[in-house]
Design goal:
By secondary structure, the protein is α+β, with helices and mostly antiparallel strands. The protein has one domain. It is about 25% helix and about 25% strand. The chain has five helices and 14 strands. β13 and β14 form a beta hairpin.
């Protein structure tokens, strides 16, 4: 009787095999769910990071453009000024870069062949500071000082290739300070003008006790660099203005960068501007007519400038992709319209 009870309390070989199989299937199912959950969590993290990076860059552009005084377009003035910005040692821009066409009578819209206004670079002048200075004559003067800002695309890791959304960095270049010619020329007293110019050149403290970067050049907004009087240099010995480069400046004029090193905004963040070879869902080329010749155009950075000078609207559209190659590609699409003055 006891032997029979012991026999009935055990498991048969078939029951053990079935139980082991079920346990294995259960472990496999749980493991698969854990892996899928981990991958989803990692993708969410990368998606959040891509959105954060894209928004940060667009916010930086927007904040700079709030103090803009002139937006350069794809015309004689814009390209001439861009041509004298010192780009030596900076990353080479794409061969197919284009400034936007300043379109005073249009609104933001998709381009059509023959009426393209969209660019894939941004070049503008922003107010760096307003200098308030009291001369020895006790007369007080206020003069604006500007900087040129240039955003453009450059190739990284071989550049954009068919089938890949990667290969592009966004670069930011900042110029040396440029003194507003209108403010300087409005100083009637020659002694006061000389004193103000030497103060700006030497970077001495202003009426508020603040010091700023030294400014060598006086710039006339709206003039071409080749025109006499558009750019003048402050003489270090007498504080007088020269129409020709002096004291080691390049002839013809060259506008120096604020620092030898330029800001490359994406590579160190492990992201790329989305190329025109990205999936259509990424929204690349939303406004511009896509061109795959040479380095391609526009890629994931689009700019439009519309509206009259008193009410410029600058549309910034940026699509950024994570360079992490494992799992699903994370990307972000941010667009903003900025009010910009164009004096």
């Amino acid at each position: 009787m006891n032997r029979s009870m012991r026999s009935q309390s055990g498991f048969s070989m078939i029951e053990l095999v079935i139980a082991s199989s079920l346990l294995g299937l259960l472990v496999m199912a749980v493991s698969t769910l854990a892996v899928s959950g981990g991958q989803a969590q990692d993708f969410t993290r990368r998606l959040s990071r891509a959105t954060e990076v894209t928004q940060d860059i667009v916010d930086q552009m927007r904040l700079e453009m709030v103090s803009s005084v002139r937006v350069f377009g794809n015309d004689v003035e814009g390209n001439a000024n861009l041509g004298i910005l010192d780009m030596s040692g900076a990353p080479k821009g794409l061969s197919a870069y284009r400034l936007p066409v300043v379109s005073p009578n249009n609104t933001v819209a998709r381009d059509t062949v023959g009426t393209q206004i969209t660019g894939n670079s941004l070049f503008f002048t922003r107010l760096a500071w307003t200098d308030r200075f009291v001369c020895s004559s006790s007369r007080e003067y206020m003069v604006d000082v500007y900087r040129w800002i240039f955003y453009y695309l450059t190739s990284v890791d071989g550049g954009p290739e068919a089938g890949s959304p990667l290969g592009l960095n966004l670069v930011r270049v900042v110029s040396e300070p440029l003194v507003d010619a209108a403010g300087v020329d409005g100083i009637d007293d020659p002694n006061d003008q000389q004193e103000v110019l030497l103060h700006l050149l030497e970077g001495t403290a202003d009426a508020n006790g603040e010091t700023h970067a030294k400014a060598q050049l006086v710039w006339l907004r709206g003039g071409l660099p080749s025109d006499v009087g558009t750019i003048r240099q402050i003489g270090s010995l007498n504080g007088k203005l020269s129409d020709d480069p002096i004291e080691g400046r390049e002839d013809p004029w060259l506008i120096h960068r604020a620092t030898p090193v330029v800001d490359e905004l994406l590579s160190y963040r492990h992201h790329s501007v989305a190329s025109i070879y990205s999936l259509p869902a990424y929204g690349v080329g939303r406004y511009a007519v896509v061109d795959q010749s040479e380095d391609g155009f526009p890629h994931g950075f689009e700019v439009q400038v519309v509206g009259p000078s008193s009410a410029r609207q600058v549309m910034l559209h940026l699509v950024v992709v994570s360079t992490q190659r494992q799992g699903q590609v994370a990307w972000a699409d941010v667009q903003v319209s900025v009010d910009a003055r164009d004096l």
